[in-house]
Design brief:
With 294 residues, the chain is an alpha+beta fold. It has one domain: Jelly Rolls (Sandwich). It contains eight helices and eleven strands. 38% of the residues are buried. It binds fe (ii) ion.
Length: 294
């Protein structure tokens, strides 16, 4: 693995303990845009959960199954009854372990870290058809049309639990500031009142700030630029089955190329919780745009 892009950590338990040097390295590496890789840490499905680790768990229309921790509800699954409850319990266990990991590894974040959705991604990525905007095999930073972040960070913890041992293959692209500088002139921050109107119409949960329009614009412009997708710098990173990794997916340019059966826990974090908030996409875009964006 490329050491500039991936920082390997030796932790082998979700709850730690973590040495102060490991905590410091994790914090600065993560905020600088590196992927933290924990090859000795894994999520262990129970015997009764292993039968659920198949694409048949998905309903026909979805690529992910998600658990909303606020309601305990599972979305996107074809499973019913006891199997559905088992899958929800497995996702919740992973979410709690991921939370414990971040609290131990990144104690600075703990008071302001918000656990968002947990997802299970059973389907094979390679060969899947998707419209360019939805195609996550293209390099992108995460930004979601219905979920305005207003500058808050998107931090995601992943675990590869493929029962057949298949790796999850990513490509990691250039640093966020270079990407943003190239694409920002092509994107718009939304019209006056547009964020308010979209919220009123129920198109977004919460109100988009100029930051959200710009991040969605960067996401779309990057994915739709065939030349960029063909020629942009990238590094192959492969996560074996039985490992865990995490990164800020709103600033790390990433593409998921192959693999199946991953778990993912999303966290949201205010920029003010960061040790170096100037590295947040919000602050990078504000410097480039010369104005406040959230
Ligand atoms: Fe993504």
């Amino acid at each position: 693995m490329d050491r500039d892009i991936v920082l390997e950590l030796t932790a082998s338990a979700w709850e730690g303990p973590f040495a102060p040097e490991e905590q410091a390295a994790a914090l600065s590496g993560l905020e600088a845009g590196r992927v933290l890789f924990l090859p000795r840490l894994g999520f262990q499905p129970a015997a009764v959960e292993r039968t659920l680790l198949a694409p048949g768990a998905l309903d026909d229309t979805r690529k992910n199954i998600s658990l909303d921790p606020a309601t305990g509800r599972l979305h996107g699954t074809a499973l019913a009854g006891v199997e559905r409850e088992r899958l929800a319990a497995m996702l919740d266990r992973f979410g709690r372990q991921a939370t414990a990991l971040l609290h131990g590894l990144l104690p600075r974040y703990a008071p302001l870290l918000e656990r968002a959705r947990t997802s299970f991604r059973p389907a094979e990525i390679a060969g899947r058809q998707a419209a360019p905007r939805q195609d996550d095999t293209r390099l992108h930073v995460d930004a979601f049309p219905t979920r305005p972040m207003r500058g808050r960070r998107i931090l995601r913890v992943f675990a590869n639990i493929a029962p057949d041992g298949a790796a999850r293959d990513w490509r990691v692209g250039e640093n966020f500031a270079d990407f943003a500088q190239a694409f920002l002139p092509r994107v718009r921050a939304g019209l006056p009142g547009q964020g308010w109107l979209m919220q009123r119409l129920g198109l977004t949960r919460g109100r988009r700030a100029p930051y959200d329009f710009l991040m969605l614009g960067l996401h779309d412009a990057g994915k739709l630029d065939e030349g960029y997708q063909a020629r942009a710098p990238r590094t192959a990173v492969s996560f074996p089955s039985g490992t865990v990794w995490l990164c800020y997916t709103d600033s790390v340019l990433h593409a998921a190329i192959a693999g199946h059966c991953a778990l993912e826990q999303t966290f949201h974090l205010p920029v003010t919780a960061m040790a170096r908030p100037e590295q947040a996409p919000l602050r990078v875009l504000e410097r480039l745009a010369g104005r406040q964006l959230a």
